[in-house]
Amino acid sequence: MIKNTHDNDLSARERILLTAHDLFYADGVRATGIDRIIKQAKVTKATFYRHFPSKNDLIIAFLNYRHERWMNWFTESIQRHGHRVDALIPTLLEWFSSEQYRGCVFINSVGELGEVIPEIIKISQQHKLDMTKHIESLLDGFANKVGTANALALAIDGAIICSQIDQDPDRAIEGLKVIVEALCIRR
């Protein structure tokens, strides 16, 4: 799925952001301290704070970065699997089966910090809207593209949570297949 390479040629800002990306996703935003990010990114505190005046600034940058990376991966994977609505299944199976899978960072972040940092909710809403718009692009010829895309996005979010809780993608993927077939294939 989405992989990072921590190259010494990256700028300090890029190293901080990539390190935060990996740690925030793996361990959660609250559980990951700035000192740990600084140490793993191999930067000084002064360098860190020059690029990100607060942890909240880093969280916002991380979510925007994750959105861009995830959407690029999602659209590329959908294309690779045939650019049809049923391509959602192998795309999500690929993500859910990855060793790094820890659910949706946007859902997780809203749950962790949405009330404390309202910008997280806005970024997460935009992420879900962009995902839904891409799903809608797969529904040419459907009478209710918007409603169907919204229903599929909701089903995907449910599958994300199911797969995260079960720590096994099978039940989530099987349920999602039934929903995709009911909404799209057998229409």
UniProtKB/TrEMBL annotation:
One of its GO terms (molecular function) is DNA binding. Residues 10-70 form the HTH tetR-type domain. The keyword Mitochondrion does not apply. Pfam families: TetR_N. The keyword Transcription applies. InterPro entries: Homeodomain-like_sf, HTH_TetR, Tet_transcr_reg_TetR-rel_C_sf. This is HTH tetR-type domain-containing protein.
